[in-house]
Amino acid sequence: MESFIIRGGARLKGKVEISGSKNSSLPIMAACLMAEGKTTLRGVPRLSDIDSMVKLLGDLGCHVYRHEAKESVGDGPTLNGPLDITVTEEKKFEASYEIVKTMRASICTMGPLLAKRKKAIVSIPGGCNIGDRPIDLHLRGMVKLGAEYHTQNGYAILEVKGRLKGCRMYLGGAQGPTVLGTINVMCAAALAEGETVLVGAACEPEVGDCANLLNKMGAKITGHGTPEIRIEGVEKLTGCEHRVIPDRIECGTFMIAAAITNGELELKHSNLDHLIAVVDRLEDVGVKVERQNGTIFCSSQRRINPVEMTTQPYPGFPTDLQAQLMALLCLGDGMSVITERVFPDRFTHVGELNRMGGRVRKEGSTAGVQGVKELQGAPVMASDLRASAALVLAALVAKGETKVDRVYHIDRGYEKIEQKLAAVGARIERVKER
Ligand code: EPZ
Fold first, then answer.
1. Distance in angstroms (rounded) separating the CA atoms of residues 45 and 85
2. Which DSSP string corresponds to 36-102?
């Protein structure tokens, strides 16, 4: 088991390379199951979740090869070589419990398997620290496209005779649109007969990135990035080359790192257009955000104003940055209010921030954050990916030393975070438990 030891108080200053997006790479890798020939993906980060998807694709008859990093700086993040994915056999249909329990995004293989191999056997994801995460919308979409499905021993088993059939469907749920559900059904519809219209589709940049990949493979998708996506089904898809979009959540996390440490950071290979609602909140907090070409300049103005923030589906404030913003507002000059609309129970970080001297009170899906003069270092426990990022941010500014345990959570979604932070002045080290 590994932990981070962080001594707070250092002001962050310098350049950070933002990696390719985890949440775009995962569904895009799954979509490669539908392509004939090789697909080459650039910018895919090195993360434990990516390793899990590589394992799953291997189990499903794909050859996956990661090239050495040779790319020049101008051509995007230099950390990683391209990833080649080639389907070599199509006999398997199962995403096993062993894999799905470690990475929910394995669910993204459902649509591609069903569309290309006419069958999908996917373990139904279980409980999650961030709250209730059913897959009813994914299943509803597949059934609307003509699949038959039943559950057995914790698995969803879907089958279709012949091709899926395009149709017009509404895909919204109680908490609004579903990101991976939209991508899953969009992938399945890409090889269906006729046109599919997805109404109430998610508009996240990751949906658009996957649609762009599929269109390069020969699909006919329009309207991605809006709540109504049109997919004209095609007979086959062929491998292509694609660069995944920058990770907007990693970028937002580093913007908050600059703010919480009174720092100045240059975030390279980032896309500010994907973070408009985040910039809106940070500017109200008092953070200065500028952009030049593909670089974001983010600096604190030594003041943290209290704000109100409600998480929403894109283009609203992302739920994946809620915990990190809460860590910042723990040092706000007054009372802030945070409302979580996407995952109403996503507050596992509150208890740990209060252990560091925060004054956060949760009531239902809203938290009141009373700002304090300072946070204190303490031993804390990471519980999920974004909650652990919030604890690291709080530790960067806390008085004294913090030990963050279970950092395997953070390795799922942040590439070499301690190296990137140390390179701009943070006093952080990764330690192995004896
Ligand atoms: C994606 O999850 C992201 N994961 C999540 O990021 C992110 O928090 C989430 O979108 C929202 O932005 C990946 O891309 C791998 P949803 P997803 O389906 O698609 C409800 C991170 O930290 N819902 O858009 O699984 C659901 O319970 C992760 O990187 C249904 O009711 O999220 C939630 O309340 C965490 N039925 C809401 O919709 C369904 O069938 C939005 O969930 C599906 C979802």
1. 15
2. ESEEEEES----HHHHHHHHHHHHTTEEEEEPP----GGGS--S---EEEEE------EE-HHHHTT
- How does residue 70 score in pLDDT terms, banded at 50, 70 and 90? low
- Cα separation, 63 vs 86, in Å, equals 5
The pLDDT tens digits of the residues spanning 91-128 come to 999 999 999 999 999 999 999 999 999 999 999 998 78
Distance 180 CA to ligand 1 centre (A): 7
What is the full DSSP assignment across 227-272? SEEEEE--S-EE--EEEPPB-HHHHHHHHHHHHHTT-EEEEES--G
How many separate helices (H) and strands (E) can be counted in the chain?
A: 14, 26
Q: Which atom in ligand 1 lies closest to the alpha carbon of residue 206?
A: 14
- pLDDT tens sequence across 320-360: 999 999 999 999 999 999 999 999 999 999 999 999 999 99
Q: Which atom of ligand 1 is nearest to the CA of 314?
A: 12
Of 34, 102, 88, 38, the residue nearest 58 (C-alpha): 88
Under 8 Å between Cβ of 249 and 318: yes
Q: Is 179 in the pocket of ligand 1 (CB under 6 A)?
A: yes
Q: How far is the CA of 178 from the centre of ligand 1 (A)?
A: 6
For residue 394, the 8-state DSSP code is: H
Tell me, what amino acid is at 247?
Answer: D
Nearest atom (ligand 1) to Cα of 26: 15
Query: What is the helix (H) or strand (E) element at residue 110, kind and residue range?
Result: helix 110-117
Active site residue 167: no
Q: Is the CB of 343 under 6 A from ligand 1?
A: yes
